[in-house]
Write a structure and sequence with these properties.
The chain has 298 residues and is an alpha+beta fold. The protein contains 9 helices and 8 strands. The protein has 3 domains: 114 residues, no CATH class; 65 residues; 69 residues, no CATH class.
C-alpha cells in the first residue's frame, strides 16, 4: 500500500513500470524470508540484516531496476532506479519504527536498531493507507490524496515519537536514583497513550505499563536469576543461545533441572505474552557440560 501511495503521489510519472518498481521494492528487503527454510534460528540470525542495510538495500534496488529495465520496453533506468530506491528506503524506515529491530548498519555493525514508535503491525497506519487508496479510486485528485495520506502517516508517527519520549520520561522519574543500563517504552498496537516499560538496572528488570492519560501503576521489580555453570556453558557453546542473545535486548533467564541435565531458557521480555511462550530459546546442557539439544521458537 505504501508503494502504491508513493506511485500515485507522483513517482509513477518517472518511467513506465514505475508503479510496479515501487510495489516490488517496498517489499523487496523481506526477500530474506527465504532463510526460514533452514529453521527459525537461521531466520532470526539473518532477518532484517543485509537486505535491510545501507549496503544491501540499495544493491537490491539496483538489481530490481536493471531487471525491470531489461523487461519493460520503453522504460527509463533513472526513473526505475529512483522508484526502487524509494521503495526499499521506505521499507527499512518503517521497520526502524518498530520494536523488533533492524540491522541497518550491517556489515559495519550487526546490532539491531529500534525506535519503538509503533507496533510491528500498526492498524492505524494500515487504515490511513487503505483509506487514501480507496478515496483515490473515486477522485480525480489522486496525487493530492496520496500525498495527504502519506503525510498523515508521517504525522501519526511523529506524534507517536513525542508520546514515546513522554512515556520514557515518566518511567525514568519512577526509577530516579537507580542506574539504568537500558530502558525501553514499547508501543501498544491500538492505544497511542499506553506504553509498556522495560528497564534494566543490572541485577533486576523493572516492568510495567505507563498511561499518558493519567496516573500509572508503579513499575514492578523482577530479580534476575544468577548465571550458574550450565548457563555459562550454554552461552559459550550453543549457536541458538548466541543468535538469540545477539537479538534480544531484554532476555529473561530461567533454568530447570531435568533427568538429562539442566535446561536453560531465555525469553525476550519485549514479546512476553501471558500464557504464551514466544521468542524463546531452550538449551539442554548435560551433566558433562555438553549441549544435548537446542532450539528457538517465535
Amino acid at each position: 500500500m505504501t508503494g502504491l501511495a508513493l506511485a500515485r503521489a507522483g513517482l509513477s510519472r518517472t518511467s513506465r513500470g514505475a508503479t510496479l518498481a515501487l510495489v516490488l521494492a517496498s517489499n523487496l528487503p523481506d526477500v530474506d524470508l527465504v532463510t526460514a527454510i533452514r529453521g527459525a534460528t537461521n531466520y532470526l540470525e539473518h532477518h532484517r540484516g543485509f537486505s535491510h542495510s545501507v549496503v544491501g538495500a540499495p544493491l537490491l534496488a539496483l538489481a530490481l531496476a536493471l531487471l525491470l529495465r531489461a523487461t519493460l520496453r520503453g522504460s527509463r533506468l533513472t526513473g526505475l532506479l529512483l522508484c526502487s530506491l524509494a521503495g526499499v528506503a521506505v521499507h527499512v524506515l518503517m521497520d526502524l519504527w518498530t520494536s523488533y529491530g533492524t540491522r541497518v548498519l550491517v556489515p559495519f555493525d550487526r546490532r539491531f536498531l529500534t525506535w519503538d514508535l509503533v507496533f510491528i503491525v500498526d492498524p492505524w497506519i494500515l487504515t490511513l493507507l487503505l483509506a487514501s487508496l480507496v478515496v483515490m479510486r473515486r477522485s480525480p485528485q489522486s496525487a493530492q490524496i496520496a500525498s495527504a495520506g502519506l503525510g498523515l502517516v508521517l504525522a501519526y508517527v511523529g506524534a507517536r515519537a513525542v508520546l514515546h519520549q513522554q512515556a520514557l520520561d515518566q518511567a525514568r522519574a519512577q526509577l530516579s536514583g537507580r542506574e539504568l543500563m537500558r530502558i525501553a517504552a514499547l508501543p501498544s498496537p491500538i492505544d497511542p497513550f499506553a506504553w509498556r516499560v522495560l528497564a534494566d538496572t543490572g541485577d533486576a528488570y523493572w516492568t510495567g505499563d505507563v498511561s499518558l492519560r493519567g496516573r500509572s501503576a508503579p513499575l514492578l521489580r523482577r530479580e534476575k536469576q544468577h548465571e550458574d555453570e550450565a548457563v555459562l556453558r550454554a552461552r559459550e557453546k550453543s549457536e541458538v543461545a548466541s543468535v538469540f542473545l545477539s537479538f534480544s535486548t531484554f532476555p529473561w533467564l530461567e533454568t530447570f533441572r531435568t533427568e538429562q541435565g539442566t535446561e536453560v531458557v531465555w525469553r525476550d521480555l519485549r514479546f512476553e505474552r501471558p500464557g504464551r511462550a514466544s521468542f524463546e530459546a531452550r538449551v539442554l546442557v548435560g551433566p558433562d557440560g555438553a549441549i544435548r539439544s537446542q532450539r528457538f521458537r517465535f
